[in-house]
Amino acid sequence: MNHIFIPIFYHVNPSDMRKQTGTFAETFDRLEGRFQEDMERVQRWRAAFTEAADCSGFDLQSDANGFEARFIEKIVEQVLYKLNPICLDVVEHPVGIDFHVEEMKTLLQLGTSTTTKLLIMGMYGMGGIGKTTLAKAVYNNICNGFEGSSCLLNVREVSEKSNGLIQLQEQLLFDILKVKILSIGNVDKGISLIKQRLHRKSVLIVLDDVDQLDQIYALATDGEWFFGPGSRVIITTRDEHLLVKLGVNYSYKVEKMNHSDSLQLFSWHAFNMPHPEDDFWEISIAAVDYAGGLPLALEVLGSDLRGRSITKWKTTLEKFRKSPDAQIQEILGISFKSLDHTTREVFLDIACFFIGVNIEYVFKILEECGFFPDIAINILVQKSLVKIDNTNLSMHDLIRDMGREIVRQESRHPGMRSRLWSHEDVLKVLKNHMGSEVVEGLSLNLPIHDQDQVISLESEAFANMKNLRLLQIKGVKNLKLQGCIEHLSKELRWICWHSCPLRFLPPRLHLENLVVLDMQYSKIKQVWTLENNVLSKLKVLNLSFCEDLTKSPNFLQVPNLEELILEGCYKLVDIQGFENLAFTKVVSLEGCLEQEEEIDFVKSLLELQWPFMIERRQIYLYGDEIPNWFSHKRTGSSISFHIPSLSDQDRVIKGLVFGVVCRNKDSLQAWHGEISVVFHNKTKGHRQVIHRLFYYKPIGSLNHLVLLQVGLGGGSKIPYGQEMTNGEEIEVSFEFECSQALEYVGVKECGIHLIIQREEEAGSMVMYSEKKKKMMEDDLMQDTPVTKLTRHRPHNWPKVWKYDGIVPFVSYIERNTSTFALLHSLG
Q1: Phi and psi of 100, rounded to 5°?
Q2: Cut 0.90: pTM above it
Q3: What is the distance between the alpha carbons of residues 517 and 289, in angstroms, rounded to a whole number?
Q4: Under 8 Å between Cβ of 724 and 653
Q5: Could you identify which of 385, 453, 569, 612 might form a hypothetical disulfide with 380, taking C-beta atoms 3.0 to 4.6 angstroms apart as the criterion?
Q6: Domain TIR, which positions (predicted)?
Q7: How many Å apart are CA 149 and CA 85, to the nearest integer?
Q8: What's the Cα-to-Cα distance from 782 to each of 164, 538, 725, rounded to whole Å?
Q9: Residue of 726, 642, 718, 729 lying closest to 687 (CA atoms)
């Protein structure tokens, strides 16, 4: 049991007691004469007096100027405080807090064998999520178990003031020692004083809303923690990475409230009872949904709606949706203000355009904007401004609204804002030619009930948007576009234009900076011609369900294409220059060819020795079975085989092709999810998930085939893939995860194909570097014939493939930092 010791110096100088001078010297002289045979005991007494004098206590002269009545009053005041510590005010309605308090107490390991150790706990989460409330509740619950305690609130805000850190240091010492500290003077002196006075004490410290390591260094550690064994330090922050850098023992993420607790908390503030009034249930649920489990929003919204009519509730909620509450905005905006310029730009792009979008897709776009998205998004995740759900970017609705409000505040006139996402604002700007050089992003996405209306626009509306980077037009099924869209910005990195009415893209359209071209469900017949320049930055081309597309783009013009999606282009009869897709990682041909033609085409792709060029490639097709040319196939979701004995020692396994047929019992339902490809070398005991295939099945199909090609080069993620030897047993399994009920989806059949090559073939590669682009440009300038795959379908003739052109073609290969060319002939 801990005891409280308070020394009282009544007509005694603490210095005499500490140094054993004055009357203490006389006393100890007598004791040393009396205990000559046990001087060790006297030395212990001297040490105890020194230690007692160093403890915080009361001195009649210095604390009360010799006035005994005042002296006694101060002693009583401190004793009462020690015996009855003042609890912090938490919240009026602590809904759902008890569960989290108990979780925190478990992590703090109170009353266990580790109680004597110092332990640091970090709490993180978005603004307004309840970190401070939870920290105060934990503090109140456990503070009596320590020799001293201090809860420093709003550390970030206080430390920004003049001498703010010094004030916090003084507050920390006073809270624990209960003695008024004379002005510390500077932070370094404060650090020394805290270490000197508290290094032996078991204390509880809460540092709330910290955003810089310097704040923690000034109050709790300079590399070693200032406090004694058994101490506990709780730090709350919005920045998870700060806790990582600090090296805390445990990190606790404060999540948003569940729906039941949210409704209860909201009801306490709106109705002063734990549930809505009878006539307000439906609209209360709508209000709770808007708050999204954020306690701050639930309290603000509930208090604002209290005592109002249902009509007023509806108008207030509509106002909040269009213009978020200022108090909520201020709290959430603190994290945004702490970001650097580049990270702010990434945050605003996500808030306005990329919520729910695949993170790799967004990386490709923003990287070419010069925004370093890998660093920026990591920071945003750590500060709880952005989340990654599976592989998609997500954001709390109120944080999204905060970001959009920041853009809205840029100007009263929509055409003078950096980003436009509201269809009302976009139509106003386009119809009245109000766009300006300020506009960097524009998204026109009509609500479902308005998608069939006729929208008439002039291409000249885009002329003044010379810095437009991002363009999205979706949900506009009847767009009447007058003029030529050659006025589009040269800065465009992203064009996502679904149901585009154009038959051809203008030859003088500047696409040299374009990274993603997504024109699903468009009227396009041919995307571009040889008049267009080489699109060296284009990485994603999606022409799904362009039912009038008869001729593929010339892939010679897109040397760095990584994803090619031609799903549902059933009129496509001409595929040009497919052998130039050297870096393509994802190919989707579902429904654009007949099944047997798709399989033949894919086999042609795989025979181009692409495993050497890229680490992996995915191909999507409609199909009910694994192709016959696979070396191993089996019904079910796993397959085992033995590495074959290669009689010719010069022949080696250079790559693997995995195949999986996904089944879906309901053709009227779309599904999406992931397939984990698990590689298990049973002989060596190595097991690893080598890839996660994203799986999407549109409405109208039952089964489709996914192929994954993996090269066993230096970038292979297959454990010891290059060291597979004859006779080893390998098992590959496909573990399907779906967002919907798993009983409706699964794996029907799977297979694996070994790509075997002679070593001498690999050795025939020739060095190839920066000449690649010039070779392509020369081919385009000279109108060199390219290999293309054409389907001739005369009346009543069977469908066959024919190669047009017999010139050699070049497949580009990249290994580590060197680039190679591999020459083949299609004679």
Answers
A1: -70, -35
A2: no
A3: 35
A4: yes
A5: 385
A6: 1-83
A7: 10
A8: 71, 22, 48
A9: 718
